[in-house]
Design brief:
Layout (H helix, E strand, L loop, with lengths): L2 H29 L7 H19 L2 H25 L4 H19 L25 H5 L4 H19 L1 H11 L1 H6 L4 H27 L11 H11 L4 H23 L7 H18 L3 H6 L15
Helix pairs in contact: 1-6, 1-9, 1-10, 1-11, 2-3, 2-4, 2-9, 2-10, 3-4, 3-9, 6-7, 10-11, 10-12, 11-12
Length: about 300
């Protein structure tokens, strides 16, 4: 296996990680019946919070925690609007994205162009030095392994735990779940907050590992790709994971195509490829028949009003 191919696979993994983290959080939120289109805003707020905190404390771990907390609180605000005040989820999600974009620009104004040391990569003595296998599996930072572990944990929770089954029940039939005594609003609020925390961690990964510096709009539309991945993966964590790595590979394809000397293809067209792929996926599955076949949560995006 050539060094270029190994480098491409490693880069694709790094590119896929923030997509996977954000998409997993949104998967949990949507399985509870809540559609949050504000993932991009959550990621931006998490990114700027993590960057500023890391710059101030010198600790990337504290920075990641700050990103998670920032995403959680912004998601909680979204939950208050949509679950308790019955605001439209689509409009509120778009408002969260706009708000997060503006807030991140404001908070990061004095940090534009400043860079940090990237997250340290795992190095296992002897194992990391194994040809091919070492660079492919043992040369990443901790959040890469965390994202894969969370994929397995969430998939197991959905399939094997009471919490996962209750969450799915709330997303598929909120009235039935309420009749059985479950607090639908509380469950959905916690699911949305979890999605916010994961979105914040995804943003932290972008500003601390993928591109360890601050510029406005640092996430560059990754939140929208994460939203598409949830549907692409049919709300199943391992399928979402596979989709994230597929889109991660598409995202880095442009750099290697340029490096291979395909000068006839404009760089702007290559940069559009991941977003064109996102549009193609959403278009292919936008019909009602496709939505039914994918078994989307039946209550997704619907307002629940508890009976007093």
């Amino acid at each position: 296996m050539s060094n270029m191919l190994i480098a491409a696979m490693v880069t694709a993994t790094n590119s896929a990680t923030p997509l996977l983290l954000a998409a997993l959080g949104e998967t949990v939120a949507e399985r509870s019946g809540v559609l949050n289109l504000g993932v991009e805003g959550l990621m931006l707020v998490g990114a700027v919070s993590a960057f500023i905190t890391t710059a101030a404390t010198g600790s990337a771990l504290i920075g990641i925690a700050a990103g998670a907390v920032a995403g959680t609180f912004l998601a909680l605000f979204f939950a208050l609007l949509t679950l308790f005040l019955a605001a439209n989820q689509v409009a509120s999600g778009l408002a969260i994205t706009i708000f997060g974009t503006g807030l991140s620009s404001l908070l990061g104004a004095h940090f534009v162009g400043r860079s940090l040391q990237p997250l340290p990569r795992l190095h296992v003595p002897l194992i990391s030095d194994i040809p091919i296998l070492g660079p492919l599996f043992f040369s990443y930072d901790g959040l890469v392994y965390f994202s894969v572990a969370m994929t397995g944990l969430i998939a197991w929770a959905f399939a094997r735990t009471r919490i996962g089954m209750v969450l799915r029940a709330v997303g598929d039939s909120d009235t039935s779940a309420a009749a059985l005594g479950y607090n639908v609003l509380r469950i959905r609020t916690l699911a949305v907050m979890f999605g916010g925390a994961m979105g914040g961690i995804a943003g932290a990964y972008v500003s601390l590992a993928a591109t360890p510096m601050w510029i406005e709009g640092l996430t560059a539309g990754r939140g929208w790709i994460a939203l598409a991945l949830v549907v692409f993966g049919a709300w199943r964590p391992w399928r979402v994971c596979a989709g994230a790595y597929l889109f991660g590979g598409i995202s880095v394809l442009q750099f290697y195509v340029q490096g291979a000397g395909f000068v006839a293809i404009p760089t702007q067209v290559l940069a559009m490829v991941p977003y064109l792929a996102t549009i193609a996926v959403l278009t292919a599955i936008s019909s009602g028949g496709a939505r039914k076949r994918l078994q989307a949560p039946a209550c997704l995006g619907k307002v629940f009003r508890p009976v007093n």
